[in-house]
């Protein structure tokens, strides 16, 4: 009888873990204004330096992004991108690093 109870519990846990891992917020940094030139996607938890500052797109899908005007998330966060809303800016951005809160 324990075997029948354990299988559904393991299945539910696997589905929950897979669903949680499927989505993550993303910051897409573009080299040029208007989302032009090379781009990089930043979606890992914690601190990341931003290599391009021409424009950006933010896809908020569960984690917020703290934006810093200094590399390595030094100093005070200048702005926080929402965990549940998308955002974008077509003109150059001064942010040098991001801390994605997971």
TrEMBL record:
Signal peptide bounds: 1-24
Keywords, alphabetical: Signal
InterPro entries linked: Antimic/Inh_G_crystallin-like (IPR015791), Antimicrobial_MiAMP1 (IPR015201), G_crystallin-like (IPR011024)
Protein's GO biological process: defense response; negative regulation of growth
Pfam family, one: MiAMP1
Name of the molecule in the record: MiAMP1 protein
């Amino acid at each position: 009888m324990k075997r029948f109870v354990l299988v559904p519990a393991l299945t539910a846990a696997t589905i929950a873990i897979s669903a949680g891992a499927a989505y993550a917020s993303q910051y897409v940094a573009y080299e040029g204004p208007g989302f032009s030139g090379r781009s990089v996607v930043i979606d890992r938890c914690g601190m990341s330096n931003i290599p391009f500052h021409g424009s950006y797109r933010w896809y908020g899908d569960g984690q917020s992004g703290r934006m810093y005007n200094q590399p390595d998330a030094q100093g005070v966060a200048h702005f926080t991108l929402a965990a549940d809303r998308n955002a974008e800016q077509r003109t150059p951005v001064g942010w040098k690093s991001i801390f994605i809160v997971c």
